[in-house]
Design brief:
By secondary structure, this protein is of the alpha+beta class. It contains three helices and three strands. About 40% of the residues lie in helices and about 20% in strands. The chain starts with a strand and ends with a helix.
Length: about 80
């Protein structure tokens, strides 16, 4: 199991923590800061899911005029962890 701590850029969330197991499945996803209810829901929805598939789904999601979002930043964190 690999633990990842990621510092997102350009969003309200200041930290994303998660684990990726040997089968590339996500576990224990949590966000610090940001829209608490929505980000908890993302963590529940992706628990045990394939990391690459989750990144593909979330990549490019935008929040307002930021050009990114907490979900998009999570996809970047996953991509870095899988590289």
């Amino acid at each position: 199991m690999k633990h990842v701590t990621f510092s997102p850029q350009g969003v309200c969330s200041v930290k994303i923590d998660f684990d990726i197991d040997d089968e590339k499945k996500l576990h224990g996803v949590s966000f610090v800061g940001g829209c608490n209810g929505n980000l908890k829901a993302i963590g529940k929805l992706v628990e045990g899911k394939d990391a690459a598939e989750v990144a593909d789904i979330l990549r490019g999601n935008q929040c307002g005029m930021r050009g990114t979002s907490c979900a998009d930043q999570f996809s970047k964190a996953i991509d870095e962890a899988l590289a």
